[in-house]
């Protein structure tokens, strides 16, 4: 039954961050967030996940973050890391990013 529910949540796009990804090493840390290397459990793709602790943000900063996410979703350029999706829990917000295109953009 658990596998069936997990597959149903996957198909409906209603999975939590921890259901979809395996947390890996920390890649970076800032004042309000930590960037983790993570692995997609279904595809084995390696991604970067920015974990933002919402308790450390004021209400205004939370609203600004939501607006910024909407703007980032619109960006599309070969030299910009693409935001794939977001997850939000009571305590954290996760921004899922693809691989860095740096090797293609330095020259």
Explain how this protein is built.
This protein is an alpha+beta fold. Helix content is 33%, strand content 35%. It has a five-stranded antiparallel beta sheet with strand order 1-2-3-5-4. Strand 2 and strand 3 form a beta hairpin. The longest helix is centred in the middle third of the chain and has 16 residues, at 59-74. It is globular and about 40 Å long. The termini are far apart. The model has no long low-confidence stretch (mean pLDDT 83).
Keywords for this structure?
4 helices; alpha+beta; 35% strand; 107 residues; five-stranded antiparallel sheet
Per the principal axes of the C-alpha atoms, what is the gross shape? globular
Question: How many whole angstroms does the radius of gyration measure?
Answer: 15 Å
Side-by-side strand order of the widest sheet: 1-2-3-5-4
Question: Which structural class is indicated by helix and strand composition?
Answer: alpha+beta
What separation lies between the terminal Cα atoms?
52 Å
Report the β-strand fraction as a percent range. 25-35%
Order of helices and strands: HHEEEHEEH
